[in-house]
Design brief:
Structural class: alpha+beta
Number of strands: 15
Largest sheet: 7 strands, mixed
Distance between the termini: 3 Å
Order of helices and strands: EEHEEEEHHEEEEHEEEHEEHHHHHHHHHH
Length: 422
């Protein structure tokens, strides 16, 4: 799923991508990014194409990265108009760089980051001598400074709104034996592994959400501003915490009006009071990422990178269950027969349906009960499988049917039902 939650999948033969392994899946949501070798059904690179991604319904692509034993599966659907999520998948140095950017107050920060990810990550690797953890932190510094320069120029041209735009970010750099993940904001990385008995899948959440509702993040911001009464404010109507009453996330790219006085001062006089009372002592939002470095192990199956649009609808357990069924194509085929009335009560899939309350047959049900397009390309694309799972779990779909949800055009009404999903 792409958008505010983007899951993309790197999959190779259903096994782990360790030295002795035969496969690995990098799952994350993203807009269809620039294609590399042998990509299927991918947008022609271009800003306008990205702005329209997912606007008319689910979109997905599979990327085969040259001779590497991985595939990257991406999928997205828009709720905002235009969509504010971006995905990037590109070869980079000795591996690939794959990322999800979830914009807020507009898509321009996410789009700028998408366009410059490969070049800036290569520069970061060179600057840090290839040291992966430091390279990821350096990469975010370069993106932040680059976007600040672009925003400054935009403001000079008369558009002050660039001072307010920002983006959460979740980027993974994957080589043959290791991956490094850097997170800012409320995207999430989920590692899905084979169970010790080899019969199922289990999961491990690799990142946490950086927002003002988290007591640790809230305390960090307050300690950095000891002379301010309320650097983080609780708003009763939405029932949650906001940095200076304006932003939920505490780490992000952009949001320069909360980081530098020059950008705060660029806001119109009528807007500045909304950012909270004096004193004003930025920065309040950090661009320092949470970094995870892991060796790829033989039981690693999928790495799912998604913005919060996916996680609003599906839990870690539900995502893992959908992926488990993707690794069992015969069971899934049996499920399709059973749901169409062609299978008897002795079906193993039926037994599983009785024991799993989670969305265990969502993708097949989407086709059979809602008359939606469904073919083998959907079954092969892990991102699209997760996208349909999220759409079918949405409260509007559960009450009125998924077509009622997908027929709402992107914009305010659609956004009230769900976020961009990538």
């Amino acid at each position: 799923p792409l958008g505010a939650g983007i899951p993309t999948m790197l999959r190779s033969g259903g096994r782990a991508l360790a030295a002795c392994a035969s496969g690995f899946a990098l799952g994350y949501s993203a807009l269809r990014g620039p294609s590399t070798a042998n990509s299927e059904a991918v947008h022609t690179p271009g800003h306008d194409k990205y702005m329209m991604a997912g606007a008319e319904g689910p979109e997905w692509a599979s990327h085969l990265l040259g001779k590497r034993p991985w595939a990257v599966h991406t999928s997205c659907i828009a709720a905002n108009a235009p969509i504010e999520d971006r995905i990037v998948v590109e070869p980079c140095a000795e591996g690939i760089i794959a990322g999800v950017y979830d914009g807020h107050y507009g898509p321009r920060t996410a789009e700028w980051a998408r366009q410059n990810t490969r070049v800036l990550y290569t520069e970061a690797l060179s600057a840090e001598g290839g040291e992966q953890e430091n390279s990821m932190t350096k990469f975010y510094e370069l993106v932040e400074e680059g976007w600040a320069g672009a925003a400054r120029q935009t403001i000079r041209e008369g558009d002050w709104s660039a001072a307010m735009e920002g983006s959460c970010a979740l980027v993974a750099y994957v080589t043959d034996g290791r991956y490094v993940v850097g997170n800012l904001g409320d995207c999430r990385a989920l590692l899905v592994k084979r169970s010790p008995d080899g019969l199922g899948l289990r999961h491990e959440q690799l990142t946490k959400a950086h927002n003002a509702s988290d007591p640790v993040e809230r305390e960090r911001v307050c300690q950095e501003h000891p002379n301010e009464k309320e650097p983080v404010i609780y708003l009763p109507e939405p029932g949650t915490w906001y940095v200076r009453g304006t932003l939920q996330v505490t780490r992000a790219l952009g949001d320069l009006f909360l980081k530098r006085l020059e950008f705060f001062n660029a806001l119109p006089a009528t807007v500045r009071p909304v950012v909270g009372p004096e004193p004003f002592s930025p920065p309040y939002v950090s661009h320092t990422p949470e970094v995870v470095v892991r060796d790829i192990e033989k039981d690693d199956m999928y790495l799912v990178l998604a913005s919060d649009g996916l996680w609003d609808e599906l839990s870690n357990t539900e995502v893992t269950e959908i992926l488990r069924r993707m690794t069992m194509p015969t069971a899934f085929a049996s499920m399709r027969k059973m749901l169409s009335g062609a299978n008897g009560p002795s079906s193993q899939v039926q037994i599983e349906q009785q024991t799993f309350e989670a969305p265990n047959h969502l993708v097949a049900r989407a086709s059979i009960k809602n008359g939606l397009a469904y073919d083998e390309s959907v079954e092969r694309n892990a991102g699209q499988r997760l996208l349909w799972g999220a759409l079918l779990q949405n409260p509007v779909s559960r009450r009125y049917g998924v077509q009622s949800l997908t027929q709402i055009p992107p914009g305010r009404q659609r956004r009230s039902a769900h976020d961009d999903i990538s």
